[in-house]
Amino acid sequence: MPDGNLKQLTLFYVKINSVAKQTDFLIIGSGIAGLTFALKVAQHGKVLMITKANADESNTKYAQGGIAAVMYAHDSYDKHIADTLDCGDGLCDREVVEMVVRESTQRVQELAEWGAQFDKNPDGGYDLAKEGGHSEHRILHHKDITGYEIERALLDQVHTHPNITILDHHFAIDIITQHHLGVEVNSRTPDITCYGAYIFDTESGKTETVLARVTLMATGGVGHVYATTTNPTIATGDGIAMVYRAKGKVEHMEFIQFHPTSLYNPGEHPSFLITEAMRGHGGILRTRDGKEFMHKYDERKSLAPRDIVARAIDNELKQRGDDCVYLDCTHLNADDLIAHFPNIYKKCLSIGIDITKQQIPVVPAAHYLCGGIKVDKAGRSSLQNLYAVGECSCTGLHGANRLASNSLLEAVVYAHTASQDAIGRFKEINFANGIPDWDAEGTATPEEMVLITQSRKEVQTIMSSYVGIVRSDLRLQRALDRLEIIWRENEALYKRTTISQPVCELRNLINCAYIILKHARLRKESRGLHYTIDYPPVRPLLREV
Ligand code: FAD
Ligand code: SIN
């Protein structure tokens, strides 16, 4: 289906560029991955960072639980490595897991040196929390708004750096490769090279060409492929779709992590997260009638890895016909609960729930993408001079299921290794010549926005209905049949419509939904986050009790 895209795209590139911007490093995305990479490479060259919303708007900003790292002797690298491998259900790359975990201490210290404040105990040591799948307390956090604090600290550093320019409200449409010089490329072409990107200024409506020696994709996840997600609206899989269209390698897209506990508050979109750290703090999952149920599924009960908890909740809801389950924290010390989770306390109170006295209604929601742009240990994608870091990348760390709080960690470790690799090479890379401007000839402003907004909803409904926590061959086929219709309609719309963020995002969502489906259909087993009733699971849903 979307594999035919590039031929059609040729129509748009016909004029020779006259005023392209040039930069040593083009960074697309201003979450933890992009910002960390920027601070490192900016010591060596000019950085242009573009980001499609306000600079701080990112998944990073909403991270609650924290960042996993081995800090003290009660813990060990070996234990963190074992937990990550166990959670990944046999698909992690062991070498990558070892590298990331062994770097964790140093990279977290670096975040602290840049000004990120992690909570401490009265004795001055870090107050480490525990989350599902972790055998030790090892999560550094800033109350229940860790991501907000990290994003703040990194942006403060970036804003004062003389070598970094940030352009907010600038949207990357497509990366530029030799395809735009008229050279035919396909997925077997060995040296597809990234020369930069076409960027759309969402405020002026102008499209610019940016040429770069090195480009970093740091565009985050794909949560908005689904109807219910914890991700902010920026998470539309743009980077992954761009690389896929450019014939770069993308893998493991079937592994979508559903967070077990988003606040059940019908009508609220995106969903508000209830951090797993609350279960680490002693919170217990119960059904509507007040009964615990997690012991039926895993001996770690409410603190089992996320895929197991989300599937258990999904099963309970289907068996019982309920709309939600409950997280019970009412037995915990109230002052302590409010001190640790002030943001969640405030949010729940705003909808009439006092978490110190009442249970919190929760449901699973799409939360994190384990797959993405395939990269090597230096963060290099399959396209020359294009790196990918953070949630849009697939490093091999997470395998079939990510261990909680390992994603912020992965982003800082790979921002470091990728930056070191890029610093060593960027001066030898020349800017491309003869790249044509973006040409919108033959396109017009869409008269009917409903075609775009409605298609976006349809994609989300299809994916949530048929490609969710539990799948089957039949459901996947049905999703594909329906998605194909929307894809055809949207390609026609895209060709006759002037560039806008909604139209590009819809196209990217459709591309990502298609890749998720394609990869899910190829995986003929139940493993980690990909659970299908047609193939016996590696781990049975219910355990013997
Ligand atoms: P993001 O932080 O998502 O940044 C992506 C950036 O790219 C944004 O600036 C966006 O605007 C920009 N962008 C996207 N597309 C384009 C485009 N076309 N053009 C220009 N710019 C673009 N992980 C943990 O480890 N611990 C946690 O406690 C934790 N809690 C979480 C809680 C919530 C509610 C959510 C949603 C996620 C949580 N995660 C957590 C996951 C983690 O936050 C993300 O995986 C991580 O922050 C991703 O960082 P990133 O830099 O890769 O992407
Ligand atoms: C959470 O706080 O529960 C989210 C942690 C994560 O996604 O790693």
Describe this structure in words.
By secondary structure, the protein is of the alpha/beta class. Helices cover 35% and strands 16% of the residues. It has three domains: 21-255 and 370-428, FAD/NAD(P)-binding domain, CATH 3.50.50; 262-365, Succinate dehydrogenase/fumarate reductase flavoprotein, catalytic domain (Flavocytochrome C3, Chain A, domain 1), CATH 3.90.700.10; 443-532, Up-down Bundle (Methane Monooxygenase Hydroxylase, Chain G, domain 1), CATH 1.20.58.100. The strands form six sheets. Strands 2, 3, 6, 7, 8, 9 and 16 form a seven-stranded mixed β-sheet that branches. The chain has a four-stranded antiparallel β-sheet with strand order 11-14-13-12, covered by helices on one side. The site of flavin-adenine dinucleotide (FAD) has 41 residues, from α2, β3, α3, α6 and β7.
User: What small molecules are bound in this structure?
Assistant: flavin-adenine dinucleotide, succinic acid
Question: Overall pLDDT, averaged?
Answer: 94
Into which percentage range does the β-strand content fall? 15-25%
The count of β-strands is 20
- Radius of gyration using CA atoms only: 23 Å
Q: What do we call the CATH topology of the largest domain? A: FAD/NAD(P)-binding domain
Instruction: State the fourth-level CATH superfamily of the largest domain.
Output: FAD/NAD(P)-binding domain
CATH architecture of the largest domain: 3-Layer(bba) Sandwich
